[in-house]
């Protein structure tokens, strides 16, 4: 049963049909390679657009189009990789040992030369039979694949910021992404490399480090990580310069790389981290490293308050988590996780509003809720101040089970990038093989950089069978017009729908509509069955003398064609009549013939009651059989139930036994 459920769950399906999805990824990569070769070889010889044609013959239309588009826009990659103050990059970690053991494939392709990243999303169609892959491309300022080393990431993402800070500027690098994707791994690598380089230009480096976590009262607060055990709370205040500063944090002035590394290690040691389902050492707080580089000639000045001296921040955010990843969390972990998710949500919300403000002229000026979380409050200048250099590094997991996370991360960093699109240089239009292609200028806008969604069909189960499932369940004939497996639970008459491709063939059915239609049909079936069961129960009790009210008894007596008189009091109920017994009943009748006729009529009612009760029991048994054997059991039952016929024998005067749904 559980396996059927899993089939409609995309994550489980990605595991189950891994081979087919992997083939889709291979196809895409093959098409990409072919497109690159063609673009290089034919572009100069053939007019625009025509060089695309050989690819269209070889591959599925959308895959060919997407891969071609990726290869021709390669020329624009350099222009697209902005040298502006706000840049967005992505780094994919390699598959972990457990993922390799589970035979998971790589669902992310990094097009490093093209500064683009493609997420291959394996999906199951709502019909439950067709599986297909959607390839989504996101264009960023730089992309690092799973083989990229920390040094490469540092050189591209961090070094320009460090240089700017060493010259007196303000810079922030933010590591953002799903839990267990390598934010801390990348941040630590960058910090280690930074500690050496910083002293090439600065004599001393002042460092403070704090984390944003929850207080006991469930509120966000900053805690000093260099203050030892106590984790002293520090304040986050807006200074005269309009920037947000953390006040009261312990500062360490380092004069050598080893001192700086020791201070960083100390901060990492105090940072909140716990073992979770996804990461053995998962960060449970947002950690901010702040470095100040006093400028030459600025000695004695309060560099923290004035703009004298450069500021460099490394923000290692806690990872976003989804419900299925937090099943084993304790209560306190769940509370902290709630705060983390809230602050990340607010960060995404700010990105969304900024993006909307940028994209839609009408909504320009919409309030960006930076103050809704302490994290966004702190990072405000990174996103709004043009002179503040910011790099957001999105970390991604290549696992197909994390595709939703990866898409979500890329969409949000894309929005952040788009929100600062005014900085991007004007790009020349890319050659396009068809009118329908997205214009290259859109690419620069980050979020709109999803260059189209390729769709490659890889259905193993394309046998389109005709027919219709007629569900004969206890006289109920439901033409659901689709592939449906029902499980009827005897007690609650509950039905569940399972879509399982195997049943399509066995039942020889074809999905005509989508799952929602089937669900409607299922709900209808549940309703009919439930009311029918209730009616049957009521029908079985209609003939039970001991349940008759005084009115029902009088109606019953009037319906009988008795030879003589019966002197039964108008207030006497069925139960009281039964207690009289045969002799007591005869005493109420005017003659023996009347007593005999009344006795026979009551015996007939008793018989009918027994038959109805037997029918009800049989219904329950059949329902149980359905529960155990699913639809097969229902189909094998050919004889309609006879309870309705029994019910029709009930006396017309008293409450008629309801007919079953036919
Ligand atoms: N690029 C990489 N190369 C090799 N291993 C990596 C890479 N990125 C991450 N890892 C490994 O993945 C695991 C998780 O990494 P890390 O703790 O940095 O994730 P995280 O994103 O900080 O997670 P959380 O948000 O839960 O703190 C670690 O064991 C790390 O060594």
TrEMBL record:
One GO-annotated biological process of the protein: microtubule-based movement
Domain of life: Eukaryota
Main localization of the protein described in the UniProt heading: cytoplasm
GO molecular function, one term: microtubule motor activity
GO cellular component: microtubule
Localization: Cytoplasm, Cytoskeleton
Start and end residues of each Kinesin motor domain: 85-419
Protein name as catalogued: DSK1 protein
Organism, scientific name: Symbiodinium natans
């Amino acid at each position: 049963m559980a396996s059927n459920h899993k089939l409609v769950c995309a994550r489980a399906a990605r595991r189950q049909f891994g081979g087919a999805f992997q083939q889709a990824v291979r196809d895409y990569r093959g098409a990409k390679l072919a497109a690159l070769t063609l673009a290089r070889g034919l572009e100069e010889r053939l007019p625009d657009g025509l060089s695309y044609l050989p690819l269209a013959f070889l591959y599925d239309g959308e895959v060919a189009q997407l891969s071609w588009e990726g290869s021709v826009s390669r020329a624009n990659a350099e222009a697209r990789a902005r040298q502006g103050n706000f840049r967005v990059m992505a780094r994919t970690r390699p598959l972990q040992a457990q993922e390799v053991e589970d035979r998971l494939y790589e669902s992310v392709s990094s097009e490093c030369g093209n500064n683009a990243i493609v997420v291959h999303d394996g999906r199951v169609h709502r019909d439950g039979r067709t599986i297909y892959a959607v390839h989504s491309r996101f264009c960023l300022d730089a992309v690092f694949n799973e083989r990229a080393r920390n040094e490469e990431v540092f050189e591209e993402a961090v070094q320009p910021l460090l240089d700017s800070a060493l010259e007196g500027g303000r810079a922030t690098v933010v590591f953002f992404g799903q839990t267990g994707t390598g934010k801390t791994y990348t941040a630590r690598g960058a910090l280690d490399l930074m500690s050496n380089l910083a002293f090439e230009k600065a004599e001393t480096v002042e460092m403070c480090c704090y984390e944003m976590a929850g207080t006991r009262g469930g509120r966000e607060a900053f805690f000093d990580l260099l203050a030892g055990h106590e984790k002293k709370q520090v304040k986050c205040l807006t200074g005269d310069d309009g920037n947000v500063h953390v006040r009261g944090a312990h500062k360490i002035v380092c004069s050598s790389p080893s001192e700086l590394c020791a201070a960083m290690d100390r901060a990492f040691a105090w940072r909140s981290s716990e073992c979770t389902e996804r990461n053995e050492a998962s960060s449970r707080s947002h950690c901010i490293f702040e470095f100040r580089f006093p400028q030459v000639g600025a000695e004695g000045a309060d560099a923290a308050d004035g703009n004298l001296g450069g500021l460099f921040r490394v923000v290692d955010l806690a990872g976003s988590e989804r419900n299925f990843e937090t099943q084993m969390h304790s209560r306190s972990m769940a509370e902290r996780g709630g705060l983390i998710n809230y602050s990340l949500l607010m960060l995404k919300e700010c990105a969304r509003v900024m993006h909307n403000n940028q994209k839609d002229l009408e909504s320009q000026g919409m309030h960006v809720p930076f103050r809704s979380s302490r994290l966004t409050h702190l990072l405000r200048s990174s996103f709004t101040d043009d002179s503040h250099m910011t790099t957001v590094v999105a970390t991604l997991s290549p696992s197909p089970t994390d595709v939703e996370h990866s898409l979500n991360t890329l969409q949000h960093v894309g929005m952040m990038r788009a929100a600062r699109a005014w900085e991007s240089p004007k790009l020349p239009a890319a050659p396009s093989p068809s009118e329908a292609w997205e214009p290259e200028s859109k690419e620069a806008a980050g979020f709109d950089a999803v260059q189209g969604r390729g769709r490659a069909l890889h259905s193993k189960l394309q046998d389109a069978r005709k027919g219709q499932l007629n569900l004969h369940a206890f006289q109920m004939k439901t033409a659901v017009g689709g592939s449906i497996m029902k499980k009827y639970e005897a007690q609650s008459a509950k039905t569940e729908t399972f879509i399982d491709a195997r049943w399509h063939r066995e039942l020889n059915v074809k999905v005509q509509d989508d799952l929602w239609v089937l669900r409607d049909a299922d709900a209808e079936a549940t309703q009919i069955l439930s009311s029918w069961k209730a009616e049957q129960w009521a029908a079985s009790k209609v003939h039970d003398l001991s349940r008759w009210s005084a009115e029902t008894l009088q109606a019953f007596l009037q319906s009988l064609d008795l030879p003589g008189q019966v002197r039964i009091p108008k207030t006497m109920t069925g139960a009281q009549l039964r207690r009289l017994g045969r002799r007591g009943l005869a005493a109420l009748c005017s003659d023996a013939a009347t007593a005999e006729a009344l006795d026979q009529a009551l015996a007939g009612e008793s018989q009918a009651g027994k038959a109805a009760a037997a029918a009800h029991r049989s219904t329950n048994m059949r329902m149980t059989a359905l529960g155990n054997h699913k639809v097969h059991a229902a189909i094998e039952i050919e004889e309609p139930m006879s309870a309705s016929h029994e019910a029709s024998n009930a006396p017309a005067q008293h409450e008629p036994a309801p007919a079953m749904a036919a």
